[in-house]
């Protein structure tokens, strides 16, 4: 009896650069999911579950929607800690990690990873260099994906 299963070698994508050549823009997820500072733990949990994300930006609105700024960031682990220890009456403003660590899409990915390690965070906000508005999120898993699949 012979085994007809063939093991294929795992190779990266020709579209993904190697970790040493990649930028934040190569790995980030565009767009952010956000909530106001007065959102409850339950509201933030619903946002994460609905959008299948691991972080939510806490936005402070000043001078209308155009004046919105990222005030803090709540990761899935922050939310889980709050749900287990504090119950669901905590507000986003009390859970958010601040100040928010932000990077530009053109930053080398290794440098962004070093910043994440230095600050002990798993997610950082990516901002447009011209408008300073958030354009996406970079997570440790995004960096690991480049490490696993990058070849160029």
Report on the structure:
It contains six helices and seven strands; from the N terminus they run αββαββααβαββα. It is an alpha/beta fold and 152 residues long. It has a single domain (24-149), classed as Roll (CBS-domain). Strand 3 (55-60) and strand 4 (69-75) form a beta hairpin. Helix 2 (41-51) runs antiparallel to helix 3 (76-85). The longest helix has 11 residues, at 41-51. It starts with 23 loop residues before the first helix and ends with a helix. The relative contact order is 0.24. Residues 8-12 have low confidence and may be disordered.
What are the SSEs and their pairings?
Layout: H1 24-27, E1 29-30, E2 34-35, H2 41-51, E3 55-60, E4 69-75, H3 76-85, H4 92-95, E5 102-103, H5 109-119, E6 123-127, E7 134-139, H6 140-149
Parallel strand pairs: 2-3, 5-6
Antiparallel strand pairs: 1-7, 3-4, 6-7
Helix pairs in contact: 2-3
